[in-house]
Amino acid sequence: MEALVHVVHAVLAGAWLGGVAFTTLVVSPALKEMKWSVAERMAVRSVIGRHYARVGTANLVLLAVFAVLEGVLGGAGAVLYVEYLLIVVLFGLTAAHGAYFGRRLKELAAAEREARDPGEARERAGRRRALQRVSFGVSMANLLASAAVAALSVAAGL
């Protein structure tokens, strides 16, 4: 039973990492290449984010459950405690990204499109680009934390 829990735990961590890597390193850059307006790209990104959130949230919850279960069955050592902390960080980063950054970037892109004059459009575009840089930083932190969780999930069973 303990070996099965470990395998499921490691597979869930790998699936989580794969999803984060795919959306960060493939989907986002691909959307930048599209010849759509900024508002259209943000709208598409928002739809993708909502759909991914359903799968990603279930994956992250199951990852947390199986990490705790592995700790209960095999004795939670330092490796698992670090992983638990990183999973909590992942919940926070993911929630912040979905609840704030995605929504706010979509709003700023729409406001940029609806600006009354070029100066107002430039100002709104500048605010959007600044927030996109922060959002990218959060995505990179999520990617790094996810990679660490995947490595720790494997190490937990050694």
Automatic annotation (TrEMBL):
Transmembrane segments: 6-31, 52-69, 81-101, 134-156
GO cellular component: membrane
Location(s) in or outside the cell: Membrane
Ranges where the TMEM205-like domain occurs: 12-112
The UniProt record lists the keyword Transmembrane helix: yes
UniProt entry keywords in alphabetical sequence: Membrane, Transmembrane, Transmembrane helix
Protein name: TMEM205-like domain-containing protein
UniProt source species: Rubrobacter xylanophilus (strain DSM 9941 / JCM 11954 / NBRC 16129 / PRD-1)
